Amino acid sequence: MTTISIADKNRLTVRGVMDGARYLVKQEGNGWWIEPAPEARRRTREVKDAKKDLADHLDALVAHGFTFESAQTESVPPCRF
């Protein structure tokens, strides 16, 4: 059995294990082996420039009949909780 676990010193104390770190735990033959977990691969993604400005999107919505209303001027009552 092999699994990746996060160390929690409040449950079980293993010498050299840092609290909150990720470890690979393997059961082999007559015992258990604990070693640092391999680093997760991180995928990088390019951020492309926007094709339209926000104003262009809003103009398109207005062209389709979307209207904007002014914000309410009433104050919000305080929270009762």
Give the overall pLDDT as a whole number. Answer: 83
Number of helices: 1
Structural class: alpha+beta
State the end-to-end distance: 49 Å
Overall outline: elongated
**Order of secondary-structure elements:** EEEH
Helix fraction by DSSP (H/I, runs of at least 4) = 10-25%
Point out poorly predicted stretches.
Answer: none
Strand content: 15-25%
Strand order of the largest sheet: 1-2-3
Tell me what you see in this structure.
The protein is α+β, with helices and mostly antiparallel strands and 81 residues long. It has a domain at 2-36. Helices cover 12% and strands 22% of the residues. The protein has one helix and three strands. The chain has one helix at 54-63; strands at 2-6, 22-28, 31-36. Strands 1-2-3 form a three-stranded antiparallel β-sheet, with no helix packed on it. The longest helix is centred in the C-terminal third of the chain and has 10 residues, at 54-63. It is elongated, with a radius of gyration of 28 Å. It starts with a strand and ends in an 18-residue tail after the last helix.
